[in-house]
Prior knowledge:
Layout: H1 2-15, H2 22-70, E1 101-104, E2 110-113, E3 115-120, E4 127-133, H3 142-150, E5 161-164, H4 171-179, E6 183-186, H5 197-200, H6 213-221, H7 224-230, H8 237-246, H9 258-282
Parallel strand pairs: 5-6
Antiparallel strand pairs: 1-2, 3-4
Amino acid sequence: MQTLLALVENSDRAAVPDGMDVPAEIARREDRLSAIAQAKAKIEQRASERHQFEQQEYEAKTAKRQAQREAGKKPRGKDPEPPEAGPEDGDQVNLTDEESRIMPVSSGGFEQSYNAQAGVDTETMMVITQHVSQASNDKREVVPTLQQIQALPAVLGQVHTLITDNGFFSQANVTACHDAGVEPLLALKRESHHTPVMERFALDVPEPKTTDPLVQMARRLGTQAGRALYGLRKQTVEPVFGIIKRVMGWRQMSMRGLAKAQGEWSLVTMAWNIKRMHVLRAV
């Protein structure tokens, strides 16, 4: 009996490696399970927010197509599919910086990122609005920009037109600009680099007899004046981002968290404005 007891005692000692703190290991695993549970809850919350946004877009598209049918017109393409609720297979949470998001990058692929936005004055190339968001879709950035425009001091003048590429276009954003008293010039599609000659010099189509801001904007984009105004986008906001990245050497956030990313982007755009003011002073 004594020999048997000795064997059992030796076996128990061998099951636990030397130096292992069993309570600490249990606590570490419990913390990990808690972090996973929190991450799942955040994924579900983000999925719910995404579904609300997609549902609003779906309802707007459906209402537009229904209005076309009631007017005796046949909508182009297939009817939009209603969005599905719940998390998707690719939804993730970054435990290092949970406020960042996975976003597509221009070089291809995806990176953990924030979406840095800047509104640039076409005359001075000064940044007059800027913010950082967690949305990879630029369609969500028009309303925050309009809110910043409305908060600008009157001494700076008035913003008359908002010019963006196709990534910012949606019917809701056109309506938001109209309601804010800002003329929208949001590209309806990806613009070609070489417009045919006859199209460039074509006469302006008559102004439509409608108060629909989307129809009015589509007509303005096709006019001589509208095309010239939209052409200013590439020579204003694009150089600002290019110089910030290539000349000033800022290409990525240095700190974690949305608030710190916003502060860093504020400093970057402030540095650009100071640099730009020296150029304007010389002129």
